[in-house]
Amino acid sequence: MTKPETVIREDIRSLRAYHVAPADGLLKLDAMESPYAMPEQLTDQWLRALRDTALNRYPDASMAECSSRLAKQLNLSDQYDVLWGNGSDELIQILIQSIASNDAVVMSPTPSFVMYQVVSLWNRVQHVGIDLDENFDIDIPAWRDAIATHQPAIIFLAQPNNPTGNLFSETAVEQIIEMAPGLVVLDEAYLAYSSRDHQSYLDRYKNVVVMRTLSKEGFAGIRLGYLIAHSSWVTEFNKLRMPYNVNSLTQTTAALVLNHLSEISERAELIVEERGRLTKQLSQLGLITYPSEANFIVAKSAYLGADVVEAMKTRGVLIKSLCGSHPLLTHCVRITVSSKDDNDIMLEALEASLDALKQN
Ligand code: PMP
C-alpha cells in the first residue's frame, strides 16, 4: 500500500500541524479575540441579510459590494486595489507563493507572527528572522546587513507586532522600506487598537502593501482579511487567489459591518481603556509589562511561565505562555485584553495562581 512516507515531502512530514489549545469551558484570552460580536442594534438587519443570501449560488468572485464600501470608507483612490482573503492568513500565503523560487528570501523580525515563517517553509522559501532588540524594536544595523546579504523579496512587518504588542519606531520602519529591494508588507492586524496607521505609506512608497483583518475587532469567525496596494501588485496577487475564496455568508456580514465601522470602533476604544487599567493592575501584582498598541499585553516575571498558564487553566482562564518561543520572551505570557468583567476574572485567577506558585 502507498504510504505518506513515500509521497509526502520529508520537510512537511517533519512538521507539526498548527495547534489550537483546547478552550472548552475556559475564558479564552489566548487568541486576541474581541469579546464583542455583532452590535445588538444591527442584529436584525444582519439576520435579514443572511436570509436573503443565495446559498445555492457561488459567492460574488469580485466581492464588488465589500470592495466599493471599503474603498469609500478608506477614501481609496483609483490607483489602489483591494485583495480579499479567507483571513489575512490566506493573504500571507498568496504573497509568499507569488515570490516562491529556489533563491527567494522572506524576512521578518523575530519574534513576530509565526505564519510568515511557516508559510515560507511550506513553499520552500528561505525565511530569515532578524532578532528585535531588548525593547522589542528594530535593530537597524542588523537589518542593513541582512538586507544587503539576503536581498529579501518580501519583508513582513507586523505593526503593532504580535506577540510583543508594540509599534516599531517609525524611522526604523521607514528605513527598512527604503532599504528593501522588494516588497514590504505592513501587517496591521491590530490597527483598531493602535495609535499609528500606515495607509499613507502607500502614497509615499511604491513597494508597500498594507494588510488588515476583521478578526481582532469582533469578526474572527467570518475569516476575512484584505490587503491594499497599487493596482499593478494586486493584479499579480489576484492570479494566485482561489476562485470564490470568501464565502457568501462572510461577504453578506462584511458588507454590513463595513457600513457601520464607527459602531465597531467604539468598542475598540473600550478595549484600549481596559488595556490601560489592566497594565496598572498587572504592575501592582509585581509583573513587568511592555507598552502595547494592540488588544493584548505581554507580562513578565520570574514566576511566569507554562506552570502559571496551567494553574490559571484550573481556575477557568486560558492565556498564552510565550516561554520557549524566543529568548527575548523567557518568563513572558501574553494576555488578551477583554471586557472589564473578563479582565477582572483573569486578574483574580492570575493573582491566585501566582500566590499558589510562590508558596511551592
Ligand atoms: N497578522 C498578525 C500579526 C496576526 O497576529 C494574525 C493572527 N493572530 C494574523 C495576521 C492572521 O489573522 P487572520 O487570519 O485571522 O486575519
Explain this structure to me?
The protein has 2 domains: 4-30 and 262-359, Aspartate Aminotransferase, domain 1, CATH 3.90.1150.10; 52-259, Type I PLP-dependent aspartate aminotransferase-like (Major domain) (Aspartate Aminotransferase, domain 2). With 360 residues, it is of the alpha/beta class. The strands form 3 sheets. It has a 7-stranded mixed sheet with strand order 2-8-7-6-5-3-4, with helices on both faces. It has a 4-stranded antiparallel sheet with strand order 9-10-13-12, covered by helices on one side. The chain is globular and about 60 Å long. It has helices spanning 4-7, 10-13, 43-51, 64-74, 88-97, 115-122, 140-150, 170-179, 201-204, 231-238, 248-257, 261-284, 306-314, 340-359; strands at 27-28, 80-85, 105-110, 126-131, 154-158, 183-187, 208-213, 225-230, 288-289, 296-300, 317-318, 320-321, 332-336. The chain has 14 helices and 13 strands. The structure holds 4'-deoxy-4'-aminopyridoxal-5'-phosphate. 4'-deoxy-4'-aminopyridoxal-5'-phosphate binds next to α5.
